[in-house]
Amino acid sequence: MLAHPLLAEQPDLATAINILDDWAAHQRQRWRQPGLAIGVVYDGELLWGAGYGWADIEKERPVTLDTRFRIASITKTFTATAILQLRDAGALRLDDAVSDHLSWFDLRYQDAPAITIRNLLTHSSGLPRDSSNPMWTECAAPDWDSFVADTQKRAPTRPPYAAFAYSNLGYSLLGGVIESVSGQSWADYLQEHVLDPLDMRETRPIPSADDPLLATGYTRERADGRRDALPFWLMKGFEASANFASSVNDLVKYAAFHLVSHESAVLSCYSLLDMHRIHFMGDGWEGGYGLGVGLYRMNDRVISGHGGGYPGYLTLFSLCRELKAGLIVLTNALGSDPHEVVSQAFKLLLPELAKLQEAAADAQPEWARYVGNYESEWARQKVVIRAGQLQVISLDWLDEAPTVLEPTDSPHTFRLKQRGQSNETLRFELDEAGAVIRMWERNEYSLRLRD
What we know:
Blueprint: E1 2-3, H1 6-9, H2 11-30, E2 35-42, E3 45-56, E4 61-62, E5 69-70, H3 75-88, H4 117-121, H5 135-138, H6 144-151, H7 168-182, H8 186-195, H9 239-242, E6 245-246, H10 248-259, H11 269-275, E7 280-281, E8 287-289, E9 294-298, E10 301-310, E11 313-320, E12 325-331, H12 338-360, E13 372-375, E14 380-386, E15 389-394, E16 403-407, E17 413-417, E18 425-430, E19 436-441, E20 444-449
Antiparallel strand pairs: 1-3, 2-3, 2-12, 3-4, 5-6, 7-8, 8-9, 9-10, 10-11, 11-12, 13-14, 13-20, 14-15, 15-16, 16-17, 17-18, 18-19, 19-20
């Protein structure tokens, strides 16, 4: 177990972590699960992490934060990152036809537009999900040449953009696009241009069967309570969709990259924002898919990330970018439930992490002059100081979220932090005596009402 010094300063957060620790240990026993590793990330660092149970039952090798697991479809986030990096470099466009980069690819739904890179990234291509062979049942994937030959025989099941339909085949094609555009193999490109810049030395695009740190993957629990070890195998032609192996400690570095809001050595801040917004809305408008990540709402927070399922392994990589928080859950058995671990962990931790950010906000004494009521023909508003922030509240629409005023370098001028609005400014106008007389929002104003 590893804990951050911040927990000594925040007793309520430490209590939430303690509850999570005991709950996770208890659930692993209830589920009779071989091994489990959890990492909690905050502000780019490992806040807390722990390993439970066995990486290998027969050898009694314990799970640690350095134990490597097959992370399966979390691989897709790395493949998507590589594609966006190539876009940043001007080497491709997301609306390029796949056939622009893979000359052999000519699949097309009748009378429909060409399938694009964007379609592959968002699972909106209409392509089938997997291989035409029982890959997941027999633990054997085709090599690239066989993948190409088989794919050429597969017809799209619907036109592009008609529906979200998860496709490992589509993401495997992205691996071919990366190779075609970069001149490097998918694995070599990811190693040199994503893993090395992030110092992810313990992550393997192509895992090895004799890796002493690799957890053994196990079946579901049999009727007699037994679990069998599953064979080691590689995704080969499907590698860009699900081949990676990694550990909690290395995925902390990956989470830190996804949680930043500035430029990084891997992606522009704009591509990172693009990655973590919905590009294809799910049924019921409860969530959707971005560029290599799924998104959903947990109460008033947006959660993004990706799960992974591989024979012997179920995993989940989840982020709450608003609160600079991440969760990594890795298991080495089918029938485990990393989604339940993430759900309970976020329920425990996000309220406490939100308090940290509220406490970090520091109201400025000079803001007191702005507090009061303002009125125009359009609205009656109230400026208040709350939770360390200067806020504007609508007295006509009290159920609406307040507008937060973020200080700028200009006197009496603030950036409007308002959902769905244009990030423009608000300025308080003062008279010669220094009293506030007007509040200018963008190019319109309200008059200050005297008490």
